[in-house]
Design a protein that fits this description.
Blueprint: E1 4-8, E2 24-28, H1 31-37, E3 44-47, E4 61-63, H2 72-82, E5 87-91, H3 98-113, E6 117-121, E7 126-131, E8 134-137, E9 149-154, E10 158-165, E11 171-177, E12 186-187, E13 193-196, E14 201-205
Parallel strand pairs: 1-2, 1-5, 2-3, 3-4, 5-6
Antiparallel strand pairs: 6-7, 7-14, 8-13, 9-12, 9-14, 10-11, 10-13
C-alpha cells in the first residue's frame, strides 16, 4: 500500500503540487515558509533553520546543527522513512542552488536503491529515479498536446538492459552510460510509456 510523505524544501516551490489528503507533510527548513504562505500546517519540521529568521514554534520539530553531513531535505526523508512512508514527493528541491538540485537527485537515487519511489516536482518538470526497476508513465502524464518531453540518464557508470516503449524513440535492452547523453529529449506519443532497467540506476526527467 502506498504511503505518501510530502516534503517542502527551501528551493523553487511549485504551487500546483500541494499535499493531498492523507499525506504526511514535513517542512525541511525554509520549506516551512512556502507551506505557511498557503495555509498548510506541516506534521513535522526538520532542519537547522538557517534560512529562517527564527525557529518556528511547532509541537513536532527536529532541529539539527548547521554543520552536518546531510542536507535538511535528506534529514526530512530519513524521518519519513523511519515512519514507514514508501512514496516521497519533494517540492522546493529544484531551482535556486544547483548543488542542492544535484543533492536532491542523489536523494532520489538513495530512495530508489532502497526500493522506495521519490519524485522531485518543479514548475516545469518532474524528476524520478529507478534502480533495477520499471516505471509506467500513464496517458495523462504522456499527453502530447502540451509538448512534454522526457529525458533519461544513467546515474552510475553504466545502466544496462534499458528498454523504452510508448515513446517516439524506443530502446530494447540498450546500455546507457554517464558520459553520453543519448537519452536526452525523447518525446511522448500520447500512450502510456514504460521505462525499465535491468542493472543500473536511471534518472528520469519529465
Amino acid at each position: 500500500m502506498e504511503k505518501r510523505c510530502y516534503i517542502a524544501g527551501a528551493g523553487e516551490f511549485c504551487g500546483s503540487e500541494l499535499p493531498q489528503q492523507g499525506d504526511y507533510v514535513i517542512a525541511a527548513d525554509g520549506g516551512y515558509t512556502a507551506l505557511a504562505k498557503r495555509g498548510i500546517e506541516p506534521d513535522m519540521l526538520v532542519g537547522d533553520f538557517d534560512s529562517l529568521s527564527e525557529i518556528p514554534k511547532h509541537s513536532n520539530i527536529k532541529t539539527s546543527p548547521v554543520e552536518k553531513d546531510d542536507t535538511d531535505m535528506m534529514l526530512a526523508v530519513q524521518e519519513g522513512l523511519k515512519l514507514g512512508y514508501n512514496y516521497f514527493i519533494l517540492n522546493g528541491g529544484l531551482g535556486g542552488r544547483f548543488d542542492h538540485t544535484l543533492a536532491n537527485i542523489q536523494i532520489l537515487s538513495y530512495l530508489a536503491e532502497n526500493k522506495v519511489r521519490g519524485t522531485l516536482v518543479g514548475n516545469n518538470e518532474r524528476i524520478t529515479v529507478i534502480c533495477n526497476d520499471e516505471i509506467i508513465i500513464d496517458s495523462g502524464m504522456a499527453d502530447i498536446s502540451n509538448g512534454r518531453l522526457l529525458s533519461i540518464f544513467s546515474a552510475g557508470d553504466v545502466a544496462s538492459g534499458v528498454t523504452l516503449t510508448g515513446l517516439k524513440y524506443s530502446l530494447e535492452n540498450a546500455t546507457l552510460t554517464n558520459i553520453s547523453p543519448m537519452g536526452c529529449s525523447n518525446e511522448f506519443t500520447g500512450i502510456p510509456a514504460t521505462i525499465s532497467v535491468k542493472d543500473g540506476t536511471l534518472i528520469i526527467v519529465m
